[in-house]
Specification:
By secondary structure, this protein is an alpha/beta fold. Helices cover 41% and strands 15% of the residues. The chain is globular. Bound molecules: pyridoxal-5'-phosphate.
Length: 365
Amino acid sequence: MQPKSTVVHLPVYQPGKSAEDIKREYGLDSVVKLASNENPYGSSEKAKQAILAEMNNTNIYPDGAAVSLTRAVAEHFNVDANQVIFGAGSDEIILMLCRAYLLQGDETIMADQTFPQYKHNAVIEGAVIVEVPLKDGTHDLDAMLKAVTDRTKIIWICNPNNPTGTIISHDEVAAFMERVPANVIVVLDEAYCEYVTDEAFPDAFSLLKQYPNLITLRTFSKIHGLAALRIGYGIGHSDVIRTINQVREPFNTTRFAQAAALASIQDTAFIDSCKVKNAQGIRYLQAEFDRLGFTSFPAHGNFIMVDCGMPSAQMFELLLHKGFITRAGHRLYPNHIRITVGRPEQNEGLIAALKQIVQEVKVTS
Ligand SMILES: *Cc1c(COP(=O)(O)O)cnc(C)c1O
């Protein structure tokens, strides 16, 4: 048996440990997971009701084209229905884009560091990965433009960027699109856009009207709190959406996911309240980090990338012992951990744990 040469060396995705694992291993009563940028407030009650209402239809295949949900999302954003596509998470849309557009030897440009799924899926297609270092934790659009060649097929921009949380502005994206060749697809991954309060953040839909080579990716996994159901979407030019549809599995999103997403997109009160509470959490955490002497990148999503003044693996382990799971091990940022903004009492617990750790490290050194 000989796997494809592009697959042989790929690592298997290692999920972070679950709260249950950590409780058992460390003998803790309570563990708070602030590692995967999940919504600490769960999901809309209306979404939960919609899931229950599907319970008697498990024997029937879902609507492969997600017609009702497509119509609702198109109306919500004032775009045409043929501009919208759904995936099993926006992860699957990333996969489908690579599948549809990348041949062996094609080039694809992304930041270093950014969301790993762009590289992962492009490598499987045999594409050449061109990584452009972030500048101060932010996409360096000028350097990305300079990296474009006549083999470039897809450019990935993660905004806010995971893991740094930084954003690029509407004007910066517009100036970039003006200079990118029209045959290059630009993917604007906006998984956290609903959290952003900065008014300079791009209006992707006005840019879409001007640039048919732009596609925005969104997800129901983050602010909508439906990560378990696996549903995300892309909005772009109808030609691009049609191409992605050509490689899409016939029934790639479930009835439960479609029903919950439809209810959630209409529950703007739930989304708004999560956004407000997240912004308060960011303000609280950043003020406390300042007091601790920790510097962090400007946080625009529901997570903060903070320099904790010691190797991140060490801080990760010390926090685990106190019942907090965070994200460490970012190659270019050896002292940074990524922390998801939690509920107020979770954030306060995290800060208390960090204060204790800083004290303990002082005493022993
Ligand atoms: C979480 C995340 C996604 C996608 O998540 P899905 O659950 O697959 O929708 C996409 N991009 C970024 C940057 C993310 O952080």
